[in-house]
Automatic annotation (TrEMBL):
Its EC number is 2.6.1.16. Residues 2-222 form the Glutamine amidotransferase type-2 domain. This is Glutamine--fructose-6-phosphate aminotransferase [isomerizing]. The lineage of its organism: Archaea, Methanobacteriati, Thermoplasmatota, Thermoplasmata, Candidatus Thermoprofundales. GO terms for cellular component: cytosol. The gene is glmS. The active site is at C2, K599. Keywords: Aminotransferase, Cytoplasm, Glutamine amidotransferase, Repeat, Transferase. It comes from Marine Group III euryarchaeote CG-Epi1. HAMAP family: GlmS. The keyword Repeat applies.
């Protein structure tokens, strides 16, 4: 989705913001642009990759710049719809993430006042509104427009009158200010500026920030100065290289043993769970997330319920935010409900809104997140940080595994606390989890054989993934992975549900990927495979090592390394990731940046 960077300081700004903008490419975008101060406001914007923008840039001495990557919401991807947008007089330039919901009303009243609009973008109302209210002070003008614009936004604006000042404001979307030595940065994503500084300010909604090389001021909407804290954040290892892998996604799949191990150190050595204050009798848990994070939540439900007997409901954040399901679960709230928000990015608009809704209902909120300092980590009562490292591929892989692991650890913690498991059992579980990375390494070492399955899937128009019990969420995740990177239609189903409708779709050109794990549902799943085969649909089964029966009833198969069924989702996940990757690769798709998708979904 859209990204913003800004620089004001003592160095040529163009180079710095273009370099920073490239750090945001992983988020997904369709065009980019830059505005500079060269005595007048100079700007360039281009549809397509940042390289297109670079190809039209002249050298520049400007010491201040704002730049943007756009992910189209209002108006098709095009040069004219790209940011920055300028006021009619060319004196103000604005970049914007988010959406202005009432832009049509504002646009028509500005048109009545004589303003012209060039683009279809909602953003173009902002520079013109600023221009309308500008009386020599851009901060004041920004404070005035906040009463008029509705929506979610991060805005960075510059005015020709001040060659050093960037003014920025946010509402529900991320904004960070990075502090340097006589130079300061503005960004919508901390990754954009971590190369340059680890001193970060996180402004709140509606706080207006005036950033100059030697000075940062944070003001409330009435223009009173507000004190701010400067946080020192960990320097991330920059992930610029694919390390010999063809795609970031493949690299990230192969990084999973390390991601799990690093997260284990965080979970079992630094013990963040002890600081979550979960020491009351928890009556119910709601897990709230989107996409792959939602699937991790579904796996977590099985483990938490199995270990603690606390009922867990799992919700899509986009639904939860508009419902009041927490109080509805058990009627009156007898004890404070726990709401677990899962978001690798910590920025997903729906998950953030859900966190706020949960807090408003008096719930205790805990986030599982991969980005320290991200918005969600700042809004909830407690945080479990996963240590996957930065994930660049749009398809979530290593963050999924570390989210699941965090939920297993949480289940163990709650079970131990409530006396359902003793210290010995707790250590056994911990040891089992510690054994998973090496099993994944074994699987990765045999990944070549997954390629042999590709021809059975890559020509299909439609596919099904089926699983039961704790591997039903993995069927959903397999289907999501395949559809998002290969564009083959895929549905994930609980295996027992096929006969209630989807069987009608099966034929010899509808492959079914079956997850056959030897838990208490195994014999039922084998029967489901036989029902599918009887309809001539080819079955590709992923089974545990040595499971001859599952492989016998299937057309093709893959054996996982030996694993306890309750831990099998970690290995099944790696299998479905690799299978999807190899199919998408065979089809020549844009694996790291699938069409229409973005890494962080910061709009509703
Ligand atoms: C999965 O491959 C997708 N990238 C997507 O479903 C993602 O998991 C979802 O948008 C949630 O993102 P989050 O974890 O950053 O909140």
């Amino acid at each position: 989705m859209c990204g913003i960077v800004g620089y004001t300081g003592n160095k040529p700004a163009q180079e710095i913001v273009i370099d920073s903008l490239k750090k945001l490419e992983y988020r997904g975008y369709d065009s980019s642009g830059i505005a500079l101060h060269e005595g007048e406001i100079v700007f360039s914007k281009k549809e397509g990759p940042i390289a297109n923008l670079e190809s039209v840039l002249d050298s520049s001495n400007s010491k201040m710049a704002i730049a943007h990557t756009r992910w189209a919401t209002h108006g098709v991807p095009s040069d004219v719809n790209s940011h920055p947008h300028l006021s009619n007089d060319g004196k103000i330039a604005v970049v914007h993430n988010g959406t202005i919901d009432n832009y049509l009303d504002i646009k028509s009243s500005l048109e009545n006042e004589g303003f012209n609009f060039l683009s279809e973008s909602d953003t173009e109302v902002i520079p013109n509104l600023l221009s309308k209210y500008y009386e020599g002070d851009l901060v004041k003008a920004v404070s005035k427009i906040l009463d008029e614009i509705e929506g979610i936004y991060t805005i960075a604006a510059i005015h020709v009158d001040n060659p050093e000042q960037i003014v920025s404001v946010r509402n529900e979307t991320p904004l960070v200010i990075g502090l340097g030595n006589e130079e300061n940065y503005v960004a919508s994503d901390i990754y954009a500026i971590l190369k340059y500084t680890q001193q970060i300010i996180y402004p709140d909604d509606h706080q207006i920030v005036s950033v100059s090389p030697k000075d940062v001021k944070v003001l409330d909407q009435n223009l009173n100065e507000v004190k701010f804290e400067v946080e020192t954040v960990e320097k991330y290892t920059e992930v610029a290289e694919k390390g010999g892998f063809e795609h970031f996604m493949l690299k990230e799949i192969f990084e999973q043993p390390k991601a799990l191990q690093d997260s284990q150190t965080e979970l079992f050595v630094n013990s963040p769970l002890d600081n979550l204050d979960l020491n009351w009798k928890i009556g119910s848990i709601s897990v709230v997330a989107c996409g792959t994070s939602y699937h991790a939540g579904l796996v977590g439900k099985y483990v938490i319920e199995q270990l603690t007997a606390i009922p867990v409901s799992v919700h899509y954040a986009s639904e939860f935010r508009y419902a009041a399901p927490v109080q509805g679960v058990g009627g009156l709230m007898s004890s404070r409900p726990l709401v677990i928000l899962i978001s690798q990015s910590g920025e997903t608009a729906d998950t953030l809104a859900a966190a706020r809704a949960a807090k408003q209902q008096g719930c205790h909120t805990v986030a599982i997140c991969n980005v320290p300092g991200s918005r969600i980590t700042r809004e909830v009562d407690g945080v479990i940080i996963t240590k996957s490292g930065q994930e660049i591929g749009v398809a979530a892989t290593k963050t999924f595994l570390t989210q699941m692991q965090a939920l297993y650890a949480l289940a163990m913690h709650l079970a131990f606390q409530s006396g359902s498991i003793d210290h010995v059992m707790l250590k056994n579980w911990e040891n089992e989890l510690r054994g998973i990375p090496s099993k994944i390494t074994q699987l990765l070492n045999s990944s070549e054989s997954i390629k042999e399955l590709v021809p059975h899937i890559s020509k299909a128009k439609s596919t099904f993934f089926i699983g039961r019990n704790i591997n039903y969420p993995l069927a959903l995740e397999g289907a999501l992975k395949l559809k998002e990177i290969s564009y083959i239609h895929a549905e994930g189903y609980p295996a027992g549900e096929l006969k209630h409708g989807p069987l009608a779709l099966l034929s010899s050109d509808t492959p079914v990927i079956a997850i056959a794990i030897q838990d208490h549902t195994y014999s039922k799943l084998i029967s489901n495979i036989e029902e599918i085969s009887a309809r001539s649909a080819p079955v590709i089964t992923v089974a545990q090592k040595g499971d001859k029966q599952a492989l016998r009833v299937s057309d093709h198969g893959f054996e996982l390394p030996e694993v306890d069924p309750v831990l099998s989702p970690f290995l099944v996940a790696v299998f479905v990731q690799l299978l999807s990757y190899y199919v998408a690769h065979d089809l020549g798709k844009s694996i790291d940046k699938p069409r229409n998708l973005a890494k962080s979904v910061t709009v509703e």
